[in-house]
UniProtKB/TrEMBL annotation:
Protein's name according to its UniProt entry: tRNA wybutosine-synthesizing protein 4
Enzyme Commission number(s): 2.1.1.290, 2.3.1.231
Reaction it catalyzes: 7-[(3S)-(3-amino-3-methoxycarbonyl)propyl]wyosine(37) in tRNA(Phe) + S-adenosyl-L-methionine + CO2 = wybutosine(37) in tRNA(Phe) + S-adenosyl-L-homocysteine + 2 H(+); 7-[(3S)-3-amino-3-carboxypropyl]wyosine(37) in tRNA(Phe) + S-adenosyl-L-methionine = 7-[(3S)-(3-amino-3-methoxycarbonyl)propyl]wyosine(37) in tRNA(Phe) + S-adenosyl-L-homocysteine
One annotated GO molecular function: tRNA methyltransferase activity
Function: Probable S-adenosyl-L-methionine-dependent methyltransferase that acts as a component of the wybutosine biosynthesis pathway. Wybutosine is a hyper modified guanosine with a tricyclic base found at the 3'-position adjacent to the anticodon of eukaryotic phenylalanine tRNA. May methylate the carboxyl group of leucine residues to form alpha-leucine ester residues.
UniProt source species: Origma solitaria
Family designation: Belongs to the methyltransferase superfamily. LCMT family.
UniProtKB keywords: Methyltransferase, S-adenosyl-L-methionine, Transferase, tRNA processing
S-adenosyl-L-methionine listed as a keyword: yes
Matching Gene3D superfamilies: Kelch-type beta propeller, Vaccinia Virus protein VP39
Gene: Lcmt2
Amino acid sequence: VGSGSAVSLSRQVQGTGGSSAVSKCSAAARGYIQDRFLRLLAGRRRRRAPLIHRGYYIRARAVDHCVQDFLLKTQSLPRTQILSLGAGFDSLYFRLKDMGLLHHTVVYEVDFPNVACQKATLIKRMKELSALVGDTGGEGLGATVFSGENYKLLGVDLSELSELERALEEAGLDNEIPTLFIAEVVLTYMENTRSDALIQWAAEHFPQACFLVYEQVRPEDPFGRVMQQHFRQLNSVLHSLAQYPDCEAQQKRFLGKGWTECNVMDMNEFFTCCIPKDEQQRVQTLEPFDEYEEWHLKCSHYFVLAASKGMEPSWTPLLPSVTVPRHAGPDGMAGSVPAAVCGGLSGIPGLRRYGHHSVLIKPNVILTTGGFGEEDGQHCRMRNFHVLSKRAGYWKAVCVTPNIPDKRWGERLYHTVSCLSDTLALVVGGRTSPLSAGLGMLWLKFPKTCNASDPDHITVEPVSLQPAAEAAASRWRHSVTETTFKGEQYLFVYGGRSALEPVLGDWYFLHIRELSYTVIAVEGPVPESRHSHSACSWEGGVLIAGGLGAAEQPLGSVFLLRELEHGFQWQTIETHPPLVPRYSHTAHVHDGKLLLVGGVWLHASSVPGITVIDLMTGLCLDYVINVEHLEWPLMLHNHSSVFLPNEKELLVIGGGGNCFSFGTHLNPQPVSLSLSSI
């Protein structure tokens, strides 16, 4: 790389630090983290989205967890030091100083010379900062641009190890005292040979040391591909990922470079195991939030690592007080299911959406409604419907503007649609924003001839409900399933969430003819409250699988609501091996088997494909989806799917979402999954 290119690359990397400071400042302003110094160092202010706030909260919490552990375990020693690599505009020193935790600890911060100079200028200009740090007049000595009480700020390129070593020695870094190294999304921007050399240098030159790393992982799954593309577009390539793609590889990296102990976990594990339950609940209720999939995916693509050597007792800050709910994923794959794009459905932007619902309204004719997606070149909540039909082996789709006399459609997400006849469907619930109180029920009326070649009008009419049934419609991420009791047809509304309740476990039986609320006795162990689960009709009853529970943890249970003579009974279906907990999947029943499609799970190295559960034996088999013929990442969450039994085909429509700060990914076109191999 020529010097001009190197300068350009360093500027791009520095830009990520400035953006991080703004995001941390926004999270602090909303109460996620307590840090009054961020607003002084961030420069500009900008309100970020709740998903970004959560992401920077968990990052700050992980670093603080390890720093405070180091200070606690060395508090009886006369001298210690912290070396923050690529510190940017971080406020760590000021927070620790303000809390009175630096009586015998010196903090050294290193970043590119121009970043360090900007920070030094800020400190001198802000009385609140300069009063806390003092000014001992050490700047100008070598690479030191600011010197204060227990604080040294150095301007050095981390990739030039010999320069870094010389600058730190001149600034007074002592190799013989306990040292904490911090690299918060830093090493990955360096070429691996240089970052490896830095890790090994620290182990070789500091006999008592700890090394804290926070950065990205899992580059090759759909979310990881979107993440990598984002950083490539910023000209800030994540070098570590190719050689160290997972937590195990990062652990081996440090153990192979001279560190004697190394603990590592992804941020889902950290949140579950290292943050007290009351603090988890506080964070989960700070803002209206409905991006669970993106939150868990973001956390599964970042890790925190703590390596140590020569410190007694061995430094293991990340050993949780409870068992980590690790799921290695499926025991093995039973086979693969090929995925193919539906050629006749390419180039239709309205099919790029998530949080929508698709339903088979007659053989080979599908109605897709609602969600958030792409319309007229913009991202928005979807007002128009789409009708898809298959004829002579080819799919065709057409956009339909619904006839909505009173504007009650509401452009909703996370609703359900149940087809009750060849001319009538029922919409239940959904939301506009997470603050919405629920959108009620609507009739969708369409002609018998409705298909993609002759869509005609679809009329939307409000449903008048009894007061007792209104609560059934004031929810989203729920399920509505047809069931039978004493020969009569009912809709079984179950679970979901509302603006007031983050998770619901109640249910309603609605008699289909007049949509009246009917009380029917249900016995047996009541399933844990959940949303984003799947529900299918089977033998007159209802199969409930997975979902997200009250603590925002995926569930792996499968229940059957079975008809009895006097009512219904909840019955647990035991699966073996146990079903890996998941949510935001879709499900279908065929030939005595429950098929779960996609979804989100935690702590597994792979992404969910298709899981087949034999409802007679409980045998649980997993199939990977073969995406080699797709030119884009296939995200199987917040999608819809329709099963065509005569074709042994699953049509997946839409899916994806907002990938943290990396941009929105929507599956570009529907995908056909051939089930002939299952």
